[in-house]
Amino acid sequence: MASKLFTAGQIGSLTLPNRLIRSATQDPFGHRDGTCDEKQVALYREIAESGVGAIITAYSYISPEARSTGIQVGFATPEQRASQKEVLEAVHAAGGRLILQLMHAGMNVFMPEKRVEGGKLLAPSGGMTAPNEMTTTEITAADMDKIAADFVDAAKAAKEMGFDGVQLHCAHGYLLSQFLDPNSNHREDEFGGSAENRFRFPGRCLAAIREAVGKDYPVLVKINTNCAGEADGQYAEDILYYCRQIEALGADAIELSGYNWLGQGKKKVPTFYLERSKAIRAAVGLPLILVGGVRTLEGIDEVLSAGIDFVSASRPFICQPDFIKHLEAGEESPCIGCTKCLGNIWSKEGRRCVKHEIPEGFPKE
Ligand SMILES: Cc1cc2nc3c(=O)[nH]c(=O)nc-3n(C[C@H](O)[C@H](O)[C@H](O)COP(=O)(O)O)c2cc1C
Ligand code: SF4
After folding, report:
1. How far is the CA of 314 from the centre of ligand 1 (A)?
2. Cα gap 171→85, rounded to integer Å
3. What is the mean predicted confidence (pLDDT) over 150-170?
4. Of 119 and 276, which is predicted with more confidence?
5. Residue 260 located in a structural domain
6. Among 277, 297, 299, which Cα is nearest to 288's?
7. Per the domain annotation, does 354 fall within a domain?
8. Lowest pLDDT segment from 66-75, 133-142, 286-295
9. CA-based, 20 to 30 A from 224: which of 120, 237, 277, 363?
10. Is residue 362 assigned to a domain?
11. pLDDT tier, 365 (very low <50, low <70, confident <90, very high otherwise)
């Protein structure tokens, strides 16, 4: 029987020709001013031409102080937006669909120069040490107003520019997941403590985006299905609450990931978060997307037959931008999950994936 992967699916008003999505993937060759490079345009064109269901952009920061790393693309300035528009036009010209991922890093900042506008590193809780070794400052009500307004401004601009949807990044330790995760949220006010309180600010951002872009514009959320340590037992319940709330606030789909995706790649687990996703499937009705470890048609069929609507992948597209064509041919991804593609290996070694040939003209080691 033909795989359901190659059947059309719906995310709100957006029709996808198949069930495979390229998950958000930071590009190694953005400029330090947060604009895109022509290599990004070419890469996105290539992925779109392969016929993938949809592409989610790299995580794009919504304001200068929301940035995570120096090689990240932004969606904060007119120049950054204009450069992302070039990527969008290339994807559309190739017949593809492009969803813009919007993020605020919170304390998850890796910039070595510790550049944070205003000198503060905002996070749900103050007094914590960030990856860039700065100490965090607790987000105030005024900060929340500004961040929610920045998300809304970016989402409205994305819609006006013709992006096929936006995705609110609530996963992988960035600001909104810092609120959701009890390991990083120690607040004692109405934004911390219970799952209801921890969801309050991410929920407010989602509701504000939905109100600003209208009910027919695709709005997706990416979220962690788990968290680190002992708190994960309770989080297994909390995630059901979060997903129900996200559905109630009118999101069109939830992409299910986990805090520990980085450590999972080499284990040859067919998909990382299927068990939690099954529990979420039983709790909500909106479309679900499973990311993490999607490598083979067999694994994909297992996910789709569990009632998950879509699968998404990142590293297989770094290995092979036309990953879907290989699945069509019955091949599995050659990705070995080494994650050497995270970071700017492209510029250092002239390649991004260890499996890639070093392109002509790039310096060799
Ligand atoms: C190089 C690289 C960059 C990534 N950039 C992002 C990003 O910008 N936003 C995001 O939500 N996830 C990002 N991820 C995580 C992926 O979207 C995905 O959740 C994770 O890699 C697991 O899927 P995979 O096993 O198919 O790679 C990145 C992963 C890699 C390897
Ligand atoms: S560098 Fe490693 S993890 Fe990244 S795409 Fe290549 S094989 Fe996969």
Report:
1. 5
2. 25
3. 98
4. 276
5. yes
6. 277
7. no
8. 66-75
9. 120
10. no
11. very low
Distance CA 169, CA 154 (A): 13
> How does strand 54-56 pair with strand 60-61?
unpaired
Q: Is 191 in the pocket of ligand 1 (CB under 6 A)?
A: no
Q: Which residue has better confidence, 87 or 360?
A: 87
Report the CATH number at residue 34: 3.20.20.70
* Alpha-carbon gap, residue 228 to 232, rounded angstroms: 6
Q: In terms of DSSP bridges, do strands 121-123 and 136-138 run parallel, antiparallel, or are they unpaired?
A: parallel
pLDDT number for residue 349: 64
Could you tell which of 21, 22, 25 is best to mutate to test the pocket of ligand 1, judged by most ligand atoms within 8 Å of the CB? 25
Q: Best substitution site from 336, 349, 352 to test ligand 2's pocket, by max atoms within 8 Å of Cβ?
A: 336
Q: 339 pLDDT band (50/70/90 cuts)? A: confident
| Tens digits of residue pLDDT in 249-272 | 999 999 999 999 988 877 667 789
Confirm whether 219 is domain-assigned. yes
Overall number of domains in the chain? 1
Nearest to 26 by CA among 12, 13, 37: 37
At residue 346, the pLDDT reads: 62
Beta-sheet pairing, 14-16 with 9-11: antiparallel
Q: How far is CA 40 from the centre of its chain?
A: 17
Q: What type of residue is 151?
A: F
The alpha carbon of 9 and the centre of ligand 2 are apart by a number of angstroms equal to: 28
